TrEMBL record:
Entry's EC annotation: 2.7.4.9
Protein's name according to its UniProt entry: Thymidylate kinase
One Pfam family hit: Thymidylate_kin
Task performed by this protein: Phosphorylation of dTMP to form dTDP in both de novo and salvage pathways of dTTP synthesis.
SUPFAM superfamilies membership: P-loop containing nucleoside triphosphate hydrolases
Gene name of the encoded protein: tmk
Organism of origin: Pelomonas aquatica
Catalytic function, reaction form: dTMP + ATP = dTDP + ADP
Alphabetical keyword list: ATP-binding, Kinase, Nucleotide biosynthesis, Nucleotide-binding, Transferase
């Protein structure tokens, strides 16, 4: 059986990534792939319980980081690795880059904490492609305002989200082969076309 594909989707809240995950799933299904969708924080019963806690209970930054990675470990072991071993195309709404962007960039936790923790928890499990939906914090906030009620992290101010955005930019600069920046400031059609262009470039024979 061919090895699976692990693709993650990232961006500040309101960037619109959730809309495009469905379109990417359709793109791969139309080419015969066995697609599985998941998300972080969450993706397993235990990690979904942790998600509920981390998004709604008050806590310090390091606790927030450790809960994200606790859920991630369970997700990797019980969902991601089995899916990849079964040859699936796993599309994940957020993964470790979100911890570097939010808890690193946004909360200010140092790379000296994040990097060893990520290595330890992931043990080599890493997306082969990450689509980063990038847009200014102000524009994302305007989009969020018209959506549902904000959770604990979404209630942060514009400066926080600009730091998160800078955190993503730093990750993308470190891993340019893996992380594809998508300009998310356009219409759904325009952003969708940019996503398809990346996919066609990456998977020409797919
Ligand atoms: P999100 O994908 O925005 O869920 P939804 O669209 O359903 O609200 O993820 C929830 C929040 O979790 C989001 O604000 C980003 C945050 N987050 C972190 O802070 N660190 C992480 O490691 C992950 C995976 C998410």
């Amino acid at each position: 059986m061919s090895p699976g594909r692990f693709i993650s989707f990232e961006g500040i809240d309101g960037a619109g990534k959730s809309t495009h995950i469905q379109a990417v799933a359709d793109w791969f299904r139309a080419r015969g792939a066995d697609v599985q969708l998941s998300r972080e924080p969450g993706g397993t019963p235990l990690a979904e319980t942790l998600r509920d806690i981390v998004l709604h209970q008050p806590m310090g930054s390091l606790t927030e980081l450790l809960l994200m990675f606790a859920g991630r470990r369970d997700h990797i072991e019980t969902v991601i690795r089995p899916a990849l071993a079964a040859g699936k195309t796993l599309l994940c709404d957020r993964f470790t880059d979100a911890s570097f962007a939010y808890q690193g960039g946004g909360r200010g936790l140092p790379l000296s904490v994040l990097e060893p923790l990520a290595d330890w928890v992931q043990e080599g499990t890493e997306p082969e492609l990450t689509l980063w939906f990038d847009l200014p914090a102000e524009q994302a906030a305007a989009r969020r305002a018209s959506a549902r009620e904000a959770d604990r992290i979404e209630q942060q101010d514009l400066d926080f989200f600009e730091r998160v955005r800078a955190g993503y930019a730093a990750r993308a600069a470190q891993a340019p082969q893996r992380i594809a920046r998508i300009d998310a400031s356009g219409t759904v059609e325009q952003v969708g076309a940019a996503v398809r262009a990346v996919l066609a470039g990456r998977y020409p024979t797919c």
